[in-house]
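P.,

For your records, the input lines for the assembly:
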Amino acid sequence: MSNKKRVSKKVRQEKLKEMIKEDPFQNDEELASAFGVSIQTLRLDRMELGIPELRERFRNVAEGNYEKVRSMVGAEIVGELIDLTLGKQGISILETTEGMAFKKTNIVRGHHIFAHAESLAMAVIDADVALTGVANIKYLKPIYLGDKLVAKAELVRIRGNKHFVHVKITVNQQQVFRGKFIFVSLSMDVDEE
Amino acid sequence: MSNKKRVSKKVRQEKLKEMIKEDPFQNDEELASAFGVSIQTLRLDRMELGIPELRERFRNVAEGNYEKVRSMVGAEIVGELIDLTLGKQGISILETTEGMAFKKTNIVRGHHIFAHAESLAMAVIDADVALTGVANIKYLKPIYLGDKLVAKAELVRIRGNKHFVHVKITVNQQQVFRGKFIFVSLSMDVDEE
DNA sequence: ACTGTCTTTATGACTAGGTACTAATTATTA
DNA sequence: TAATAATTAGTACCTAGTCATAAAGACAGT
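Structure tokens returned:
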């Protein structure tokens, strides 16, 4: 072997990258002792790899996720609302990101697409709050990480407190999803079909 | 008025609590100047209210959300898997929490229920990775914040690369959701109905 | 007017988890 | 063995604080 240390440095840095990815919340001291090197060496490694200091990592994760959790979980609408005519139709866009997809295949998990469609459909309805009653949906093509989803929703009929909304999602003009939703507004209870 | 300053202190502290809730990522200097008081005063306020320092707030949000995002968005299964017979049936439980529900009504957003059902249905299938093809679902009753969802999935038929799974969700033995999913395993492309 | 209490501001010493830089030491390898 | 790379050590400095002490300002009651 021509260079034990050089290799070990590269290997160490590779492992460091992985470690940071798996658990970004360790300080230099902990990381250094995990590799059996000095703090300075570890800091050089971080510098070379462009890995920011612990507090900045905290900041990044906190800020990134704060947005995510606010906009994804707690939000009234999943995706970005582009156009909306209350009681008629609406368009929303969702950029698919890491974490929405299976790691193995990079295929976006179905429920994100469902959430996108459902929340847009809900936004279109001109009633205080509606509850999803029935949904008939079909995934026409797999959606891959990075695909930009364009959802178009159309309110097609209202019967009593039931609202019928159709949603189509396309990626690059190609249809990938369609869904028919029936929402029941909340003034009355949801009854049997 | 017996004490202008005392009142303004209380008011200031109330406002501080709100500000921190809305945007926890401001340091003492910014907060102090927002109220027109000195840094020391603001720190006293924080102490009295038990609000931790900025870095700890970063840490809390980062660590809290890291878990959330990992377990909720990126997870292979939504909810807790209780029982699973691969290729036959499975049971999973999901405790509904804040953030899953509309603030106004405390009704849990439909896509969380969908995600719960879909991911369990997926877990039951004995194939490498499957993609949701078609789903026919019905919400029978509104689900409220705090409800504990019990999902039971059953693989009812396999035809070629199509897997038919039925999922029932109950809250306190009362059925609240049913869904029929068709998953297409990935060896072949998804074709038209 | 003086005292007491609350509130606010100031000051200094100290901390974690670093950055930035210089210098020295220890491999490794041609 | 000399050159080069890798590692370690050490110093000054930074931010966003903590903790403790002190002093100044506001206001009420006596």
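Two observations worth noting. Residues 3, 5-6, 9, 37-41, 44, 55 of chain A lie near DNA strand D (CB under 10 Å from a C1'). The beta strands of chain A are 80-85, 89-95, 130-139, 148-159, 162-171, 174-185.

Regards
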